[in-house]
User: Fold this.
Amino acid sequence: MIRNLSLVLLLAFATSSFANEIVTDSHIDARLRQLSTELRCLVCQNSTLADSDAPLAQDLRREIRKLMEAGKTDEEIVAYLVERYGDFVTFRPPVNASTALLWFGPFIMLIIGAITLVIVLKKRAAILTSEENAS
Amino acid sequence: MNPVIGHYALILALFVAALQAALPLAGLSKNNEKLFAFAAPMARIQSALIIFSFLILTYAFYANDFSVYYVAVTSNSHLPLIFRLAAVWGGHEGSMLFWVTILAVWTLAVTFFAKELPLRFRSSLLAVMGLLTVGFLMFILFTSNPFDRIFPAPFDGRDLNPLLQDPGMVFHPPLLYMGYVGFSVAFAFAIAALLDGRLDVTWARWTRPWTTAAWVFLTLGIALGSRWAYYELGWGGWWFWDAVENASFMPWLIGTALIHSLAVTEKRDAFKAWTVLLSICAFSLSLLGTFLVRSGVLTSVHAFATDPSRGLFILLFLVVVIGGALTLFALRAQSVGLGEKFDLVSRESFLLSNNLVLFTATASVLLGTLYPLLIDAMGMGKISVGPPYFDTVFVAIMVPGIFLMGIGPIASWKKASVPDLASKLKWALGISIISALLVPSVMGRLSPMIFVGLLMAFWVISSVLVAIKTRLKAIPGNDVVKKFKMFGPAFNGMLLAHFGLAIFIIGVTMVKGYEQEYDITMHSGETTVINGYDFTFKGTLPVTGPNYKSKQGQFYVTKDGKEIDLLTPEKRYYPVQGAVMTEASISINPVRDIYISLGEELEEGGWSIRIYFKPFVQWIWLGCLLMGLGGLLTMVDKRYRLKKKVTNNESAAT
Amino acid sequence: MKLKLILPLLLFVVLVGFLGKGLFLNPREVPSPLIGKPAPTFEAPVLGDSSKTFYTEEMKGKVWLLNMWASWCVACREEHPLLVEMRKHDIPLYGLAYKDVETNALAVLESMGDPYITTANDADGTIGIDYGVYGVPETYVIDKKGIIRYKQIGPITPEALRDTILPLLKELAV
Assistant:
């Protein structure tokens, strides 16, 4: 599981000293970690690229690292993977016509629900008040 | 003991359950009171038969009877006894039998603890539960018989999946199933009420403790499952928004909504149709979960070996049960009356808006879970919907709900005033905002998500305190302790559950915001300093378990020269299944976990190692535990034990 | 008033429709987004003779099959006899040894027969990534213009060969 090649090399050189201080995550490490939690490991299918030790997952992480080092943005890297593996590879579905219901449906439902609730409550109170007055 | 007996007991149980359903229903349609008397005895006989059959299967596991096919594929003679017993529900067939056994337990509970219900209503209730039992028994007998034999019997079994060989497997499924199946009681209450035409305050009062009981089990079951995943899967995740996790979470969300709407129905005789619909939905989502796990329509880490005929059977069952229930709802729920009056701004309204939020949140989870299937079914390709979606949409929908949750308990019933609420809560809001900014400044990093999470948590906590203060003021007198004692378990339980949610939110926010992960390589004798902790790797020790061989890493963790912990993550090899498992080792304390798992062994005794720092992660499960305890507390409220009062109402009603 | 009460039932009916359809879909099969798109070009050393190089450019104007396989892949062994049979019928089959040790791959070809005109060696799996491979074996049908027309995920079955691949090859050859 040599996922973090540069770090491994770094440590190999540093083994002569007694203690190795890892000061901070390098910027790319952090980005890789973040991005790979949003990508699907295709072989094992239900874990993320970050959590999988499958060989393909390791290759893809290595590939993503290469792209990051080449200065590609996260969006470009996801696009690169989607081009090859389809939308299935990303756990963050793209926002388009076929996913509009997915992304916006719940919010629209909440708004319509809130309006309906207020109307129903008001109507209900009005009916009950008039009944009260009638009796 | 011959396993065939277990099979026969199930067949017999099927017939008795059919009578349990048919006789009271015939009584209902023919208005023949005598037939009602059959419900409870039939229910008890049927439940006893199912439990007996379950014990027979358990015995087959205990005795390593590999002539039973199911035992042969899920157990092994070297498997420790406790896991052999848990293996009873470790595969599809046994877990279905376990499902129906839990249903039998709930049925028995109804026959023993719901005696205050009028006979007619109780019999309809048992009839509905009998119908459910019939469906599940048919499913087991026709597609998934755990008592199938193989001849010749294999010398030994294929073993339980090593992932499941864990204490979590002993406790998680029973609690979870008690929760899932427990909603069948609320469902049966709803159907019986629709059949009987008795949707009223007493119905709501009867339903409440049963719903809460199921909800408590489900809360604890989900939490336990999450904690199990956390230490077992080796990467420190605790919730993945996996289809099967969602399948257990949706009934929980609807169950939570139901508990709150039952409060409105009980108090004001209002929104009865809505409450009935939620009762139907909670159990329907449990059934849907069963379908999703066992039919193979969705990919999931939890999925059982799939078989289309099983999927078809469960789908048919869903159509009959849910379709039937919703049809009955459409026919009978129209003339239920409005109930009593309450204002637009009132505790009732806050409870209902909480319902709206929880219902919408459930819809978002359902939509996210099924969307890949919808897209695929329409031939529009394959997509994945995972954590990034739910973390965005679900959380965004819950935020207003949690804001309202702070106000609800302080608002008065029937009529509340906005200026009064504002003056009571302005300090709570101010303190929450300041605390939500202060904590990140101590931790060293602030992001919008961290701020919102902490704000919500502190808002709930401070509003709980305001609710206590308001309540104390409302009770006349000066003796605070005496006044506090008058609060009543229902009120205390509610506050405790709300407080638990706040603790949960703190845990989630802190872990998501501040967790750190390190991938390193270490050789024996090396020390690495991470986050101010010294990790000294003393190599690995060979360990021989009952049914595995393991390499156990020895990591001494010290901070400023003081020993903190010895962590011993393992790499286990289970020869029967040829599986290698990673066992993480965790140093736990209230504010942070240090989590180590072994990666691959490298050349020359080196190991790749993952070390995680998980701040406040234990608060996640502590919060769930508090929620569960809160629920438990509300159940002991005397209101639900007033047998006399119920019978008085009953005589008044008839 | 009435519609409100029927709505849950209607939604449930729609849901059942989708669930029923879902029973007959395979959630694990992921269609390739590359179908109808140009096959990624690559050059790779030839398996068994690294002094030679395989260029996809050279395949322009030909209809060909690219089969990704590996010696460590069990399903590939299952498929292998059928590939050998296909080769006997002059189907233009090219191999790509995916993430394999060269000697292991050659040993399989030695013992089970070599169905490939040429096998390119993709030792580190980068070509595989370009083609969106997520599990070997996978087979691509590429037309004269270098466009991917079909992807077989998993072993080629006799049915898939008879009903899909052979008719497609016939159509593309024209």
Chain A has two domains: 1-94, 98-135. Strands of chain A lie at 19-21. The helical segments of chain A are 5-14, 27-36, 55-69, 74-85, 100-134. The longest strand of chain A covers residues 19-21.
